[in-house]
Fold:
Amino acid sequence: MKRTSAVLLIILALFGAGIGYLVDHVLTVSGRATFAPSGFLPLLLLLVAAAVLALAWPVRRSVRGRTPGRIDPFRAMRAATLARASSLLGAMMAGFGAGLGVFLLSRPVGPPVGSIVAMAALVVSSIVLVAAALIAEQFCTLPKDLDDRQPDDPATGADAGR
Structure:
């Protein structure tokens, strides 16, 4: 599995920002109130960040040799997959919250302080989720084995013993 790239995270954040801005714009044009995320959403994202780190920690301990025995490779893969999915979700949610905030701040009427605080909390908790997920993904990275050499490596060729 390849590591999550920063370019992908930036693209998803920009996509989320566009969606957030568009949602508030459509709501405003149709005469409805703008969207304000629940105060529970940032807390939920922080709980997901803690869970991702908690699931990746035993894999890290096993890789570093601090835990007797081996970790189940399927468990390690599940932890790495959850970490990657969480980083992608966090990037999209950070962009979404930023898009909502940009729309509110671009209006001629000042937004309520509660809305700005809710969106700032969403962006900050989403960034924390991305950071925790990238750290958890690093925890699940296995060191290269000596047996993982490529067939074209000089050490594995026919004249390696000469």
